[in-house]
Amino acid sequence: MDAQDGVWRAAWEGARSQLLRFGRTTGRGLADLILPPMAHDSREATAAAGLTPDAWSRIVFLEAPVCDGCGAAFEFDGGDFAEDRCAACATLPYAFDRARAACVYDDASRGLILRYKHGDQQQFAPLFARWIGRAAAELTADADAVIPVPLHPMRLLSRRFNQAAEIARPLARTCRLDYLPDSLIRISHTQTQGGKSRRGRRLNVKKAFAVTEAGRRRIKGRRILLIDDVLTTGATAEACARALLDAGARAVDLAVIARVRNARDLTM
Q1: Which intervals hold domain Phosphoribosyltransferase (predicted)?
Q2: Which of 3, 21, 187, 227 is 20 to 30 Å from 253 by CA-CA measure?
């Protein structure tokens, strides 16, 4: 977002906030009628939960049936006798028990996620939290606490915020779950996962995470919902899940904004 866009949005939202305060006594709908919420992906006013209609139409949201283990979409609904896990998850399950993704990571969703993750556009966080809340409703219903995949302090310093934490916080609040951002920490400043093979990703994060002593007391015997932005091969989530399970968590589930279509088929 350039400076001009920032000034435009600030002015718009400032005027809208004043109308909302007035609207508390005269009807909240008045503010939306006069100055509807702006889309996160353009200057266009929208009523479509933060995105323009064109952006909504291009996002491939993942709907049931999906694999219970990795969140991949099944091509068809097999009915009452269908398997609940894909062949890969049945043969070689992840350390985390279940996974859900809100959408497919492709050209349509990638730009939004990268703008959020690397463009410091944190206005996407509540939107992505709502997406995950819908896709992972089964997981939030069973969870005891929510933990974001942590960043190493050096990376957090350069990026200025943890994209997983900014999604996990409102999700935990909405679902009335404990939010435990400091229970799991990243102890190794690893290389970026981008461009690495599945095996390379696993080795890169194999011993990168640890549970704090205070975290052990808070997660022991509890079902944890782990939050991340994108599921590629699952290596990062796998390493986090193993650390949590070794520290006494009863089970770990995973919820992400998006997943690549072929997460379990990438080159070893």
Answers
A1: 214-261
A2: 187
Is 151 in a helix, a strand, or coil? coil
Q: Rounded CA gap, 79 and 81, in Å?
A: 6
User: pTM for the complete prediction?
Assistant: 0.76
Q: How far apart are the first and last CA of the chain?
A: 37
Beta partners for residue 253, in sequence order: 225
- Three-class SS state of 247: coil
**pLDDT tens track for 94-138:** 999 999 999 999 999 998 898 888 877 888 899 999 999 999 999
Going across the sheet that includes 251-259, the strands are 99-104, 251-259, 223-231, 145-148, 178-179
**What is d(CA 130, CA 141) in angstroms, rounded to the nearest whole number?**
15
- The Cα 187–Cα 184 span in angstroms is 10
pLDDT > 90: what percent of the chain? Answer: 50
| 160, 190: one domain | yes
Q: Taking 90 as the threshold, does the pLDDT of residue 143 lie above it?
A: yes
Q: 46 and 96 share a domain? A: no
Handedness of CA 47, 50, 52, 58 (dihedral sign): negative
What is the enclosing helix (H) or strand (E) of 147?
strand 145-148
Helix (H) or strand (E) holding 79: none
Whole domain around residue 50: which residue ranges?
A: 3-54
Report the number of distinct structural domains present in the chain: 2
